[in-house]
Amino acid sequence: NNLKALIEKYSGDDSPGTKMMKKKIEAAMKTLEDIGDLKMSKSNHKKALLDFLAILPLAATKAATVEHIQHGFIQNGMIDRETKRFPVLANILGTCTRDVLIKELEMLLDAFPDLLEQVNKYGRIPEAVFDHYGFARDVTPSGYEYIRPDSVRQTHMRRAEFLSSEFQAGLRLQDIEEKKMAVQAKRLKDNMMHQQHLDTNAAIVKKLCDKIGKDADESHLKDCRLKHFAQLNSPELKAFIRYHDDSLRYVKDIPKTKGSLEEATRGLRNRILVAYQCRNKPSKLDEGLPHNLDEDGDDDEVAMQLDDLVIVHTVDGDDDEVVSPSELLSNQSWIQSVVKLFSLEEYTPSCFKSEAPLNAQQKKELAELQTKADILVKMLRQRLKEHVKIRAISRTDHWVWKLSRKNLAVVAAYMILAGHTKSRIACIKEGGSLLSPNANKFAPCRMQPKHEGCYLFFDYNDGVFIRSGKVTGGGVESRLMQHKSGAEAEIASSNFYDQYPSESTARSDKRDKRGFFEDLLAVFAAGFDPRCDVAKSASEDVKDGGILLLSEHEKANITSSKLDGKMTDIEKFRAIIAYQFELGYDLAIASRDNVSKSPGFESFIGIFGGTE
Description:
The chain has 612 residues and is mainly alpha-helical. It is built from 22 helices and four strands. It has helices spanning 2-10, 16-34, 43-63, 66-75, 89-93, 102-122, 127-133, 166-211, 226-230, 234-244, 261-265, 271-277, 325-328, 332-342, 350-353, 360-391, 399-418, 476-488, 495-499, 552-559, 569-588, 602-605, and strands at residues 443-444, 452-459, 464-471, 520-528. Strands 1-4-2-3 form a four-stranded antiparallel sheet. Strand 2 and strand 3 (464-471) form a beta hairpin. Helix 8 (166-211) packs across helix 16 (360-391). It is globular and about 95 Å long. The chain starts with a helix and ends in a 7-residue tail after the last helix.
């Protein structure tokens, strides 16, 4: 009652603080409306809710004093009475509806360090951890065990969680982005279907106008005769009726058969006659598309148009240049360095290997691949923006992201050289895989156990890539052994090991797993021998014989980075190369298949293990 009275008192508040609060809430409500999580039948309901939420903090502060709030937290043991900082175990146990056994208390104290680590890392404790230590599961009112699978995202169906943790915040952001992608995909499908109807109608109108020797225009349909409509096939007549008959309420009301010209002449209602009768009616189709897919685009980035791409790249720094993947694929010196470093001799298309002048077919192939590379980099950069927002929550302004965005041009050109992408990437839906599903196009890691660089895991049971990884300072063989140990551990230390446990562990019975670690094939996306000559030039810019695009300012950032261990400057540059390709291939993996939560460049941005 106090709160209600206070809300009525403050509802007229129009201070700058309240206006700012309203603006932020309105933006959040629009996001929820766009992804379908907020639906209101009346506009005044939305306005009332907006007003309520805007003044709620002020009203709640007046109604709920600090002392009243603290009292509840003290009673349930969340804070102590004296310092109001530390939890009180005895009070927490006092909230249980049954007596706590001594062995349960001992089990809790024994597991507490690990439980605390899980909370700090994930913002919650996975059910597998509770099961590992033997904590009793929740039960329903009927006495049955209540299963809480980790895949459940609804907060009210899970045990307590730390909602403001970076991991949980990242999951919520990812959930919102996935819903946005689903809405965008539906809008794209709506536009495609509408365009298909427009094209079908235009084709029918042209066909009829051709029969009377006039230009394709609906205004000329009045000159068409019954015999002209009789020359259309049954599906064309049905479509014409759908588009032009304004009295039609249901498709099922369209005559079932085309009928004959003779029947139509006698006035028998068939598709020929009905189509003829509505020839003077304008098309019901709106010439515009249902959705403007560019309306939500950021002001500083042009929305992606796959059929007319303009590659624009601007980076601060005196030595930075605008470089597109197609330019790199015209640079024979760079191509030779890349082919030599990553051993691409058997994978590179002939148009990039020929020392003699290219023939007509090779020139055509080269032009197509260069265009494809320019499309690819645009798609990767579009995905990078969401990647940084979701996975690098606290380090979104780090210098590596500007460096990595520029060098996605290098990764895109490399992917084309190596033949690692699907043939028609312009047809890939948002969030879909850009990588070829043929794992034979990638070199198996077991063939080059001492190589470093970027590797991928391919789930040959599902036929998809599920994770990219980086290894430097030691061969890939030792890194894969670490992954094997992680998959075999009794408690999963990352989302990857949680989704792909080893068959030998008790976690293999997990119901919401994606597969088994033994189902995965490790292949190199971009593997190199750190001892080769080109690897020794890792600190050089492309124009000086290097692999990456590096300004003097960026080189200084890399060499001045304080990394774990005693890495030499050249080792830091090799790490940057490996991280760059790891990021590029991570972006190319389908979002629904990707089990990694790591941001990339962990050693440089100071997030070790990411949010996995």
